[in-house]
Amino acid sequence: MIIKSAEFVMSNSDVTKCPKSRLPEYAFIGRSNVGKSSLINMLTGRKSLAKTSGKPGKTQLINHFLINKNWHLVDLPGYGYAKVSKSSKKVFQKFITQYFSLREQLVTAFILVDIRHQPQAIDLEFMEWLGKNGIPFSIIFTKADKLKPNAITKHVEDYKSSILETWEDMPNYFITSSSKGIGKDDVLDYIDKLNANMFLS
Description:
By secondary structure, this protein is an alpha/beta fold. The protein has helices spanning 36-44, 86-102, 121-132, 149-163, 184-200, and strands at residues 6-12, 25-30, 62-67, 71-75, 106-114, 137-142, 173-175.
């Protein structure tokens, strides 16, 4: 897939106010500081489409971007270690749950995981929640440029071992690096394939 256009549509904290179109949506979410904004900018080829920040928890709203006039990329708030008040965290964690529960346009979610770290309970718990609620997802391992190939393989295998303790199969996954452009075509081609299947059905 070639990204010809990528434009901001809206930000909000109310799922009922999300775009009314029936265009397919792909939601990106992960722990704070996992490199989500950088990944979105890399995928779309836009340097500042999603706002990046050195401070975790920058994204605190549901952000919709229209891609190629025919699908939405949705940037969701990070979960985990955002330095915000407990009351604020409860509010936007609530609309994350509402988004996944109510948004019928959602085709699949992409759960971003920092490949440099060992499997984190908060990531595994969130994947478990998605599975129990019947929400399809893929894993995107970020920051692959920070590790050597052997270390990447080992860390992916560690995640497989942890996930297969409760899952029958390893979810679909991608290895990416925003700074090196690694995995861009793999992720976009996957979205393109899902879109094609939707429009054919």
